[in-house]
Amino acid sequence: QWYQRRVRRKKLLKKKNHNVTPSLSPNGAFSVTCDKPEQMIELVKEAIGEQELVSGSDFFFVLDCLASEYHSEVVPGQGSAKKGQSQSNSRHRYEWFEGQLKPTEDLCDFLETLVESEDIVALVDPLHPEDTEGYEMLAKRIGPKCLLFSREGAANSSNVFRLNTTITHSISQLQELDRPATVLEAAVFEEGETMLADLALVSGCGFVMFGGFRGIRGKLYNQISKLVQQKGPVKNVLSSWEFKEVIPEEESPEQEQS
Predict the structure, then answer these.
(1) Which of 13, 21, 52, 258 is 20 to 30 A off residue 30, Cα-Cα?
(2) pLDDT per position as a tens digit, 115-140
C-alpha cells in the first residue's frame, strides 16, 4: 500500500515537473524544483486530495525549513551588492529565494504569512540556531498557533530528539525532555530498523519524523501501520495542545512583582 501511494506521488510529481523524473533527497524524499515554497504546499495538497484527505482536518503541515542550509552572516547594518538584500541591524541573512539575501525580519514576515494562509502547525529549524532575536520575534508572532522546533535547542523553541546508538541511552534522555513538545526523529544508523516505530507510540512524544520512504525504511512505515492497526487510532496531539504565548521579558509577571 505504501509502495502504491509512492508510485502515484511520483507520477504526479513527474507530471507537474514538466515530465522530468523527480530526484531523491538524502533522506529519501522526492525533491523537485519550484519557483516559490507555496507551490510545493499546493502539490502536497493535490497528492493528499487524491487519497480523499482534507487539509486542515485530516492532514496538517509541519515544515522542516533547514534554515542553516541557506543562512550566512554579514556585518550588522551593512548592505550588500546582492540583489534584494535589505538593511538590518541583524548579522543573520537568509537566501530562501536564489539571489536574494534577506535579513531575519523578512524571513519572519514570510513565515508568518505562510502560517496564516496554510494549514501549518509546526516549523522545524525555521531560523539559524544562533539567531536568538529571530526566534523570539517569530515566537511572539506565530507562537500561539504554530509550534517551533530546533535541532540545536534554540531559545523559544522545542526539542527535536534524534535516537542514540543504544535504546537505553535514548530512553534515559527522553525522560528528561518535555515529550509532548518533542519531535522524535529517525537517525541514520537505524535505517531499516523498526525501533523508532515502537518508541513513537510509547514515548509520549507529540511528533515523529520518519524521513523519506526509501526501500529499507519501508519496514519502519510498515511497522507503525501494523502497530496502529493492533492498538487502534493514535490520539491527535493537536486536539489537546495548548499553544503557549510568548511573554516579552520586560512584561513578565515575575519582573512586575519585583
Answers:
(1) 52
(2) 999 889 999 999 999 999 999 999 99
